[in-house]
Specification:
This protein is 62% helix and 0% strand. It has helices at 2-28, 33-41. Helix 1 (2-28) runs antiparallel to helix 2. By secondary structure, the chain is mainly α.
């Protein structure tokens, strides 16, 4: 059970980092806004005005 909990936390953190990377890539991409905005809004943990750091110190 402990392994499942640790794995779930790792997947959660990975998803947050991956969503932030994809959001950064698409926000800087030279694509039409009508295509870019739905992609950005469909990301999990979407927060366009996030002031929190991406990585937390241990």
């Amino acid at each position: 059970m402990l392994l499942v909990t640790v794995l779930a936390e790792m997947v959660k953190e990975y998803t947050v980092v991956l969503a932030a990377v994809v959001e950064h890539l698409f926000s800087q991409a030279p694509s039409p806004r009508r295509i870019r905005l739905p992609i950005l809004q469909s990301l999990p943990f979407h927060n366009s005005n996030s002031s929190q750091p991406l990585f937390h110190p241990l």
